[in-house]
Amino acid sequence: MKHGPNFTRVEAGWKQKGKEDRIDTSGFSKRRNVFVTLFWPKKRFVYNIFEKRRSKEFKKHLSNVIAYARRYKMKKVILFIDHATYHKTKNVRKFIREHTILKVKFLPKRAPHLNPVEKAVNAPLKSVVCSNRSYRNMEQVMKNTPTFFREYRKNSYTRLN
Fold this sequence. Notes:
By secondary structure, the chain is of the alpha+beta class. The protein has one domain: Ribonuclease H-like superfamily/Ribonuclease H (Nucleotidyltransferase, domain 5), CATH 3.30.420.
């Protein structure tokens, strides 16, 4: 999930006839990237926030996924991932080969509707944190993102069913 540009995202909603919402922007584009992995059937998740979305950050996220899996004594983690370039680099493929707990299955190309993370986590995150809000700086966005995940984690069982 990407925050931005300009910290704002306008979402459709009901307005009184002749009225418009005003959403200020900072005048420049910045973003933060969130990697999210859902664990089924328990419906738990691991997330990491990074400034960039590259294979380096994806490997850090995978390291956290592995740590989580080991903490809960999981024998295998099957990752369903899309075809983003940072998912398929040589160093990511090597990292996955070296960590046999990970098994990767690629989703079909151009099929975000098949990715459960998009619907279960990313869409609510964008709606709650980004849509129809105005932030003065990235720190405000970054404060609201972990808050969203804490609240979401409390209610994740009912939301993901």
